[in-house]
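Continuing the series of single-chain predictions for the mutant panel. This is the parent chain; the variants come on the following pages.
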Amino acid sequence: MFMLIDKLESIVNNKHIKYKYYLNDTTKTLFYVSIEIPIQRFKIVYEELIKLDLSETAQYIICNIEGITYLHYYNDYFNKTYLYEQILMNDDNSISKSIESNENYILIKLCHDNILITESKITFTVKESYDIVLKILPSFNISPDDVFIECDPLKVTFNYPISINFQLFDMMLLKYNLFFNIYTNESINVMSLAEKVIYTLDIYKTSFVMNLYNKWKTFNETIQFQEVQWYMYSTIKIIVKYLYFLYIDFHNEVMIGSDLHFNIPIKINYNKLFGNYYTRYFNNKDKVLPVIADKEYCDRNSIRYVQWKENYYMAPLNSGYSINLTTNKSFNKEGKVPKCVKVIRNTSNKKNVEYSNLSSHLDENSKGILPPTLFVPYGFELSILYRVHFDIVDSLIEFKRCPKCYSYIGIPSKENFINSVKSKINNSKYFENENIDAKKINILAFSVDNNSEVYPYAVTNYLYNYNSSFSFLVIMLNTTKLYTVSNYRYEFIISSSSNLFCKDDPLVKAIFSLYTKNNISIIDNNDLQNCVKQFVQEDDHVILIAEERIEKTNCYLWYSFYSDIIPEVSIISSSQLESLLPELSDLYDHVKDINAYHYYSISKDNEENNNIIVYGVWSNNKYYPCKAKFIPFKPGMKNKPYLLLNRNIDGSIIIPNKNNSDYMIY
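Parent structure:
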């Protein structure tokens, strides 16, 4: 079985392979492990799973048992930071499809996969997720040695960034004596014009049909196998990897000094190779694209080249262009990409170039005009403001990516971001003339995406604390895909007269309006001390504050929110809170404009005669808790649970802490 693999591996290891291009595995299937779990064990298993250190790619776990759902976040980002990252994190559309027919399930959400656990099986779609499945099996009293991974027959597919010429591929098989294991019945003349060639791949005593597609005009360059069993999948993947290594090396030998005298140019799918930096359509005659470079040849002839990943690139010879690694104009998973640039003999030292387009080049000495229409959806058209680029080189505020799917799994915390910014402004030339103390500055931030839409940034738990006696330093996190940088770009926002803003400036009002429409409370710390009577503390954050005492009762009207500022007033324990909560009737008397409730329905169907348990009410974006109360359900009652303050069915309160971060959702 391994004779072909051993032969290919020997050829590759004994040969100096100059070019290493990799196939992109696009195989999709559903893997599963058969198990038997009684429904009575689901909650026990869930409580064990939330304690496991699974992986950085694990985001959260959901357990649904007979209509009651439990939720736990593995990634602290989700319950410590405002979820502005809808443009960064993968959405959950695949979840609803996978669980719609399962009433009882446990689902572990990874950034690139969903592991779904039911009473009869564990399913997942990405092969690498099996490593996590092995970690969770002991929680089901199952040994990893006793399970077998299964899947339906695979349609194995790979696409490739460097086009395969079928004539040269056949000659390469002949050169390395591989045609006994890999062969086709097509003639050389037919292959030279074909867009598809069918090869037979013999491994041990099994034959596989290998379809090679080279539809260059439709950008469909793939290798495909039909009906492959799981145990043969890895073997085939290794074989085609080595074959592709050898083909690219052979094609380059043909182009550089070979006795074969073939003039077959190498066709690169720039879109696949460089991660969407280049478009797939190359009909622009003025665009000069990089070509593969032979390092030794370039060194001998003093030709400029750049390295990208494991390979080298240069501008086409005699084109009048040189080659650079560029970092602007397009978002790309890999950071910098090779780009051909026009050679200009004269030089200039232009600085402070103004521009109005987000796609324009921005160097460290230039100012960019902030588009005045960014906040028009929030009622503000801003006068001329400038963006000033600055780099923050700090591991604490890096955007961490999943090595499998390159989606973001780690977002800088608000605290680390603010500390890094304040450290930066102390050494920035833009604040040399400002007599400011970094400790007495409000950091106000927002992000902008490729569609010029703005989002809150550096906001924790739906609350922004500021001090009205301090100035505002405004930071924009430029997440537009028009840039190609290893980390996202931060920029100061300044006016023509000042680098700082006050509370009444239109920009500050515009960002506050953005926050308000995203349900973020804006708290002036100067006023906070005056309005708070009592508060409940949780992990160094305020969770509930008492706004006022209800007359003739030992109850308070509570307003629930999180704050980094700890008021200098009396603290009560969470156990005392229940006795100080008002009745639902008190909320009816004191809270205006109730627009939603937090309740649990006794029945699955909210019919008019059914009773519900009410835990609190909503007035616009404020949540007010009360003692649990049974009341009849009325049509039109909107249910809006409040997850930061958890309630048991009997009405008792669960205050989440570091050792108990799971939520019950009704």
